[in-house]
Amino acid sequence: MFDLAAVQAALREFDFDAWLLADFRGSNLLARRILDLAERPLMTRRFFYCIPARGEPQKLVHRIESAALDHLPGAKTVYLRWQELEAGLGAMLAGHTQVAMEYSPRNANPYISRIDAGLVELVRSFGVEVVSSGDLVQLFEAAWDDQQWKMHQQAAVHTDSAYARVWRFIADALRRSEAVTERRVQQEILRHFAENGLTADHPPIVAVGPHSGDPHYETGDAPLRDGDFVLVDLWAKLDRPRAVYSDLTRVGYIGKAVPARQREIFAIVAAARDAAIERVKSAFVAGETLCGWQVDQAARDVIEKAGYGHAFVHRTGHSIGQETHGNGANMDNLETHEERRVLRRTCFSIEPGIYLPEFGVRSEVNVYIDGQGKVHVTGGPLQTQVVRVPDLPDAKNSI
Q1: How many C-beta atoms lie closer than 10 Å to residue 109's C-beta?
Q2: Which of 183, 331, 370, 391 is the right S-S partner for 316, CB 3.0 to 4.6 Å?
Q3: Are 235 and 324 within one domain?
Q4: Residue 272 pLDDT > 60, yes or no?
Q5: Do 270 and 172 belong together in one domain?
Q6: Are 350 and 317 in contact (CB under 8 A)?
Q7: Taking the model in full, what pTM does it have?
């Protein structure tokens, strides 16, 4: 539910004059969600909602959709002609020198860029500076309430336990000399989700051998055999309204002894993962403002120092929410220079990887910052070594 007092408090905290939210035919999903419009029919005309740091919000809506924002507080202006739209927007912005919008300078962060250049030009024509609303968006779109945090923890129990089922499924099939493929393992994971009331927007990744060296491999029908390295990336949430995801990746080896090369690469990735987690924890203990790029760099430094920077080809982590990839800060200093802050009540993955032609290693966990600034690593204990699949999983080697 839209909370004007909370929005205005955040505007003052971030030192913004106002937040100008605008949409045309669903082009700004972030604005629609923040204004409780996501489940309502799309409007066919432009609307604007300006929230000042103090005082009454203002609405600008088209005559044929004049009730579009009636569920929100504030004074309403109705326009018909384009001249009236521009005049109404100018009047709405009068007295403001700076407004936040879903805009990223130089399109440096496309996740937040939902406003087109023409609208930015129009706003600037009224003598108003446009700044990014990135931190505001994640505060009201990516921050979880207590119920969502509880649902995440419940989902994490089942995403964690999926791995024991995966390793056992592979081991049992091979003992019986049954053919087992990537897709069969994927289907077993989906059965596990269905049995435990979970849903996912896309099937999990099961990648064997060289396929594990492709970070976004689409699971196929490759067989799993003795001597194969296996990567399993799975994500799911409770099949309930407003549920949020748990997203984990672990790796295993089918054989009696994990090759030294695979142990070496895993150890580097695990060290990078742990360095990123420690960067988050130390920042919140110290009360330091922490940006997503700094978390990425902590992991990237470890892998680059080990000589594998060229093989770490994606960001360290992504925001997690009602979608697997949420709308909060990403842990990224590769694809973007993520300057959004790591905020309380937000969740994100930490998942560094090294991808080589013969195999690839990724170790993924989720990190949640609660309302008191305590850092929680979810999804079970950290994986500390490559799982040996002939061993039935236990507390020592399955996680």
Answers
A1: 22
A2: 331
A3: yes
A4: yes
A5: yes
A6: yes
A7: 0.91
